What does this fold into?
Amino acid sequence: MSSTPTTSLPARIIAFLSSFGLATVVLALLLIITFLGTLEQAEYGLVVSQARYFESFFVDRIDVAACLRALAIVDLGKFTLPVTILPGGYTLMAVLFVNMLLGGIIRIRKSPKTIGVIISHFAILFMIASGAVTYHFAKEGILNLSEGQTSDEFQSFHDRVIEIEKVPASADAKRQALVIDQSAYTDLSAGKGRTFTHESLPFDLMVTHWVRHGQPKRATDGRADAVDGYYVQELPVIDPQKDQAIEDEKLFSACVVIVKEKGGEQQKGILWEVNAAPLTVTVKGDKYLIDLKRRVYRLPFAVKLDKTEEEKHPGTERARRFTSWVTKITGSHEEKRVVTMNEPVRGDNYAVFQSNFGDGVADGSGVKSSGFQIVENPADHWPLISCIIVAEGLLLHFLMMLARFIKVEPWSFAIGLILAFNAAFATAMWKLL
It folds into this structure.
């Protein structure tokens, strides 16, 4: 009498996580959310669709009407399908990473026949890891310069902060600001408040009535939430004319702050992203500036815009190319560079892209200007490295298969041809560059 050996629970879990079936399901779901996210992008914009489908753990809803309109099938008006079980891109990529690590690296049979496949799987894991590093650590923003202007700071596209700065006693004193990240107050809608403290401040700061898109408006009906005759009016984040979500770059958040002097009085004010000046309060004889703004990052170098030009398609007013001649200043070292569309300048883990152009006519200044998209990404070159590793792994695999077919020694044949190919490719690139 024989008995079938039982498999332990951990072994079954590992077998499931490394299974080909799980990989197939994950890839199918990635295809589905990519399709839906691309369709909704037509109405909601890149930022909103990317956050809902690709950066989330789970997709909260699917706008069926928007998807059908994007496909030009039918206009259902407004029809949204609530979803609670569809995993988002973040979850799917995490599961795919575990699946490939277990199935494609750890559990795969190790032999000369599978070495190329193992290398390719490792490269794909490296590419997924680069996406995670980019998501968590990359910084992205805009640097606007007029001709002759120099700056070493750029402003974030999406990250807002509240800055608290003590006005220095002298103009030569070093400026320092305390920063409250947006994640600490974006849940503070009307009726909610949170108090922030710091040992260096003689007051506590309460933040309340935050809105993602709003403006101060004069209160004419004796509202209880009015501050100096104004209140925070919440504005829609959907453009009623286009029936599309307004881009995040065009949203202006606002909130109410209450300065509570320790053992003293209270002062209230409204913060708005586009205020001409920060809120100024005086506490114990010292002045403090409180401002709601896009986060500002400092570059390890300065950029000076020497000249910028716009090239248009012949016979039209449509832009064909923006080109900027800049000087990259690092300490006392200056380097002339050219930034143009689809041809960024890279260095010091930063990439500088040509984003927009101003001819100086619309604003009446007569001075040309350029907008540069600045991206700091520690994993900037990781996808390229991954593609090279994938190519090398697959090439090794196919050459070893070919060597066995023509009955020659696989390793020397495959490695020799790969080295020759890499040398030829490197020589060609060196000649071109």
